[in-house]
Design a protein that fits this description.
By secondary structure, the chain is mainly beta. The protein contains two helices and 25 strands. The protein has helices spanning 151-156, 249-257, and strands at 10-13, 23-25, 40-41, 46-48, 53-57, 62-63, 74-79, 94-104, 112-116, 122-129, 133-137, 141-142, 144-146, 159-161, 165-168, 177-191, 193-197, 200-205, 210-215, 218-221, 227-230, 234-245, 264-267, 276-289, 293-304.
Length: 305
């Protein structure tokens, strides 16, 4: 098989938990009050609980109904703004004027950081160790990309921005801190999800992978044949054929089984945004073939966005 018939670096990135216990940020905390048993809440009033989850009152005269234990009285609105980029959802985003900056102390080895749903001019990642000092600096990774695919398009077509970015190659230090700066000067910096962790690499993807999306918009025709559409969410879909060394047959299966019900970042091929998806594996099949190679078929379904 020729080297050009497959890509390098198929694997996945399990996220580590990022909370206020191991992270500081320049994004302001929510100013919403905590729930109080003696307070009567109007319809639409919002409070925040100890886990930084926002709740909206679904009833007028809402008194004595703890949102943590009462059903039908409160609507869960998700975590506050500063934590939304760590909530395992592509439907919510952390937003801040000009700059989102945070520092996380992982307490473990981190090799890769995947950014999803970006609206930014640039991203920079640095790593600092309390003993050895500065260890890593990605530099300012520009996300602005000219469109058009030609010299004319380079100069005259509207500027497009990348929404995904992988920063890899972080050194293996457990006591270091990682600082991330997402810049969008003069505008709103936005990020739907930041996945920080240690990547697990499995093998090489054969070319001709299948990528697509499932659309959850409502589309129907009226009695005259005209279309009516209500835009909804969509989710990525990816199918891969991966070649893995035969000696890794059982290891590969065991690694994937452990994450069968957890959302992780899947890399169809390292460095290709179109082959990067954050979601679940929904299909896996292995076939042992000749020359010590295991031929694996994977189906990945992304989170809705």
């Amino acid at each position: 098989m020729s080297a050009g018939s497959f890509t390098y670096g198929m694997g996945f990135l399990p996220p580590m938990a990022v909370t206020l216990a191991n992270m500081t940020t320049n994004v302001a905390a929510s100013a919403l009050p905590a729930w109080a048993a003696g307070t009567t809440y109007a319809l639409g009033a919002e409070i925040i609980d100890a886990n930084r989850v926002i709740w909206r009152s679904m009833a007028a005269g809402n008194l004595g109904n703890d949102p943590a234990t009462t059903t039908g009285k409160w609507q869960n609105r998700g975590v506050e703004n500063r934590l939304r980029m760590f909530d395992a959802s592509l439907g919510t985003s952390t937003e801040n004027a000009d700059l989102i900056e945070f520092t996380v102390a992982p307490g473990r080895v981190v090799t890769d950081i995947q950014f999803l749903g970006l609206q930014a001019y640039s991203v920079q990642v640095t790593m600092t160790d309390p003993v050895n000092g500065a260890l890593f600096d990605s530099g300012e990774q520009l996300l602005l990309q000219p469109s058009g695919g030609s010299h004319w398009g380079y100069f005259f077509a509207p500027i497009e921005r990348e929404a995904k970015l992988l920063v890899s190659g972080l050194p293996a230090y457990t006591g270091a801190s990682i600082t991330v700066r997402i810049r969008n000067p003069g505008g709103t910096a936005r990020c739907a999800e930041v996945v920080i962790g240690r990547s697990i690499w499995l093998g090489n993807t054969q070319w001709r992978p299948s990528i697509g999306f499932d659309d959850w918009s409502l589309k129907k025709r009226d009695e005259w044949g005209g279309w009516r559409a209500e835009q909804g969410a969509y989710s990525d879909r990816m199918k891969l054929q991966v070649l893995i060394a035969g000696t890794q047959y059982e290891r590969t299966r065991n690694l994937i089984v452990a994450y069968r019900a957890k959302p992780v970042v899947w890399f169809g091929a390292r460095g290709y945004n179109a082959l990067t998806s954050y979601g679940y594996i929904t299909g896996f099949e292995q076939v042992l073939v000749a020359h010590g190679i295991s031929d694996c078929t994977l189906t990945i379904e992304g989170l809705e966005q």
